[in-house]
Amino acid sequence: MFNRLALLTKLHRLRRLKKCACLYHSGSSSKEIRETFLDFFAKEHVHSRVPSSSVVPYGDPSLAFVNAGMNQFKPIFLGQTVPQHKRAVNSQKCIRVGGKHNDLDDVGRDGYHHTFFEMLGSWSFNDYFKKEACSMAWQLLTQVYQIPPQKLFITYFGGNQSLGLPSDEECREIWLSLGVAPDHILPFGMKDNFWEMGLVGPCGPCSEIHVNKANLETSLARTLVNQGTEEVVEIWNLVFMQYNRISNQVLEKLPAHHIDTGMGLERLVAFLQNKNSNYDTDLFLPLINAVHQISGGVPYQGCYDMQSGQGQRDWAYRLLADHSRMITVALADGAFPDNNHRLRRVMRQAMVTSRKWFNQDASLLLELSQRVADMMGGVYPELSRNLSNVHMLLRFEEDVFRDHLSKSGREWSAIVNRFPELSALSTDQQPGLIAGLRQLEDWRRFSGTDNIPGSLAFKLYSTHGLQEDSLQLLVQLKGWNVDWPQFHQLMADERMSTKIQSSAAVGSQFQCAAALKVAPTIWQCQDVCSRHSEGHYIFKPLDATVTALISKGGCTIKEAAAGDQIAVIADKSCFYYEAGGQVSDTGRLFWSTGSGLVEEVRRVGDHIYHLVTINEGSLRVDQTVQMMLDEDNRLNTMANHTATHLLQAAIKDILKVTCQKSSHVTPEHFRFDFGLFTSEFTLEMITQAESTVRNWICQSLAVDRLMLPLHQAVSLDGITLVPGESYPDMVSVIRVATESGKGEVVSLEPCCGTHVRNTADLEEFVILSVKSAGVGSRSVRAVTRSTAKQLLCRADDLKREFSLLESVANKFNSLQFSQLKELDTTLKQLREAINNEEIPLLVCKELSIRLSKMESYVRQGAQEALARMMQHQVELAVSDAGPASFVIVYLSIPPEMLEIGRVKLSLIKATRHCPHKPILVLALDDGCLIGRCTVPKEMVTGDFDAEKWSDCVIRAIGGSGSSPKGQDPKLNYNIRSRKLVNDSPDSVRQQALSLATQYAKKDETCFWMVAMATCRVQKRREERSKCGRTGDSTGIGRVLANRLGGESPSVSLRRSSDFNFDYVPVQ
């Protein structure tokens, strides 16, 4: 009966397959081709359809991006978790821009390499193996897609003697049994038919399916398999996951055998749509057409000749179509350019190409990202959902790149002048190249060889951030050689080894405990803390046994005496060691005969070092000690770390697009750095963030710690992950929610640090500062608990002081000098308190605004008082001058008057009080003698004007002079002496006054010539008057002379024919 049912089921499937339309050369859309693949495995072969994972590989530092469909199933292949499905199928977003799988340099130059592609994949997790996988693949290609079998070529693994791996003859026999012709089955080695996802990890032999796109003869086509031609290309790879690579020469068998197949959608679509290039399919052509529609100009013609102008332009079309897909997907999945240099490089290459070839800024990429979301949003809904985030990051990167070009342009031009061959490098590759090139040139000059050791290349990577692809381009242009195997080995060592970095932080005198053959330390940091329902914490002491003592000199010792500073290693520890941005615990060690102070704790390998100063007694190896935490330090650190998570959650809610850059948590305060991709983190945003955290504290939210496998943790809804961060296989996740274990989640992120159990234990929260931490970054510093309460109390005191001062100042319409002085002194003290004391940022901003208003009020009062003082002294000087024809006055301004509110001494206001005479005003300001000279226009002569009068003073006292902007120097001129350091201000003043007076008296007779000319004009007017009135010119002259402040000298007037007067003084 069961056999009959199986037969009927098989016949039903065959009937359905016969009804499938022939897709080969059918013109089916890429959407239909993708869905056919997914339906074939999901419906015909009972595979579970799973969504694509993010292209950001959280927890795997060996990858810049997810580069294969199997990445999300890595824990299953390693036996770290039980699969949810026995069989799976999906379409996975993949990006290959670095490492072993790097297609970046080939993008656009041929028709099938891409940075982003879709991997159609099917998996079996210890269910079926080679025979079923090959059979399903052959059935889909030849029966469903209707590809003629003679167009397909099969490769299999030919073995590797050095690794002891035999040829996969089982795979060859399976293909023969499926009807594949023997001359269409070819063996290849490790490079082509042994699949690995990276330097380490799951791997195994594979069998690839290649298609003869050009209809070549079999004898010719088989020679082109795996040769990188466009005539015969790989479309599907069937990986038989059997091994896990531990190192270059070590492979171990996996706990179970799995199947991982992957077929590039782009190549499959190109073949089924009968296109010579992937870019001619409906996956890319709409984007290419969009570039042309937006930019205009020469349309795309599909040229690949990079020696021709059209070929280069078409390359630019293809590059933008490819890069816009990759950029949109990466940004939508949460990648940030700051954390991923390859993403930034692709973005900048797209921006450079857009500017150079299409004269477009970021608006072109914005439009292309919109098109990508429209085309692919149905398959990957996150593209449409996060499109606004994509646009925000694109605009931000455009601004950053524009600034980078303006700042680095001059330096880069100088480098290109020295090394013209480097002009081929695009501007987006400049960071790190300048410094790296200089170091390489210095080394080459010193060594006299063009062979660069891999160790130097690795140093340039680790020191200057010079990536392998940039290094390759640099040395290629310079004609140098690099020991790349050594470079790759150093890179692998960095990724794979533990590299005990923390030992350097503990102190170079301490050696690794592993070399001492000491058992690993059992860490019980979280176990010693408990919380009562009313919020009181209890930290239990921990009994431990000393397993090693290391002296400050780095030697192992058996015993340490009072006063010694040593490193103590024990079998257990309750102290938190510095990690995750949180400082270590402090505390004490007690034993029967003494005690010691624990000042710092660090982890080195599997051991915990306690830096201890022995206070009393002696400490020996194997001694039993009691470990006691500094409870206040631990509790304050716990509160600050929980507050860090709450602040991040609040900022994410406000900004929508942000990422953590770093954090530093101490018992006193914490610092949180985050990415800012908008114009500013405004005061309103700061207020909202602080208010949100305070509300969560008031709500007494539960804080739980969950221990989860990494693959399960990263799949949690709403979890906050740090791009580029490496997470362990088992992750501690801190969950803040309205109820313990359930309810609305406020914050969810992996963290190994210590935390309170309830947000109410934070008691209070205050932001102290928000500062720039570099381009696109802000740094927030904040406090909690008693520190925050104390600062708020101090802020209230300052507010009361301000209110009192404001009320006092408002009682007076105008303040006297003594009142102004006293008020100014008080305001300066308050300003110093605001600038130097720890005050809540929002209160500081509020008080600064109020203080500025009061300072302005005092400054205005002081300015008015100064103006009154200057007016009084000038008017008094004019009155004392009497009949003199000019006025020279020195203003005696008390220095403390100028210090009030930093008032400005403006002499223009002083000269306005004497508009009818030439006047020179001098005063002492900031250690310099300053002056202003004003001469009425009618008093200017060829020998006397403001500039000439001032120059006689300037030449004598030193300094400089100039006319006010836009004014005639003959009428108005300013003086400023040199700094009077060694000179007596009184003597300089007297000298200036004396010289100015002598010069003015010497030219005083000129004033009378002006006066008589005025009389002549007046008399002419009188004689020509038709009103019949008579006037006395001499009287007018006498009045004018009186106005000028002098007696009329005895003169004789000689009348000329043109009714002019000659001015002749009588001796």
Automatic annotation (TrEMBL):
Keywords: Aminoacyl-tRNA synthetase, ATP-binding, Ligase, Metal-binding, Mitochondrion, Nucleotide-binding, Protein biosynthesis, RNA-binding, Transit peptide, tRNA-binding, Zinc. Catalyzes the attachment of alanine to tRNA(Ala) in a two-step reaction: alanine is first activated by ATP to form Ala-AMP and then transferred to the acceptor end of tRNA(Ala). Also edits incorrectly charged tRNA(Ala) via its editing domain. SUPFAM superfamilies: Class II aaRS and biotin synthetases (SSF55681), Putative anticodon-binding domain of alanyl-tRNA synthetase (AlaRS) (SSF101353), ThrRS/AlaRS common domain (SSF55186), Translation proteins (SSF50447). It catalyses: tRNA(Ala) + L-alanine + ATP = L-alanyl-tRNA(Ala) + AMP + diphosphate. Belongs to the class-II aminoacyl-tRNA synthetase family. Alax-L subfamily. Monomer. Its cofactor is Zn(2+). It comes from the Eukaryota. Zn(2+) binds at residues 641, 645, 751, 755. Residues 28-794 form the Alanyl-transfer RNA synthetases family profile domain. One of its GO terms (biological process) is alanyl-tRNA aminoacylation. It is an enzyme of class 6 (ligase). Consists of three domains; the N-terminal catalytic domain, the editing domain and the C-terminal C-Ala domain. The editing domain removes incorrectly charged amino acids, while the C-Ala domain, along with tRNA(Ala), serves as a bridge to cooperatively bring together the editing and aminoacylation centers thus stimulating deacylation of misacylated tRNAs. It comes from Daphnia galeata. It holds the Pfam family tRNA_SAD. This is Alanine--tRNA ligase. One of its GO terms (cellular component) is mitochondrion. GO terms for molecular function: alanine-tRNA ligase activity; aminoacyl-tRNA deacylase activity; ATP binding; tRNA binding; zinc ion binding. Its EC number is 6.1.1.7.
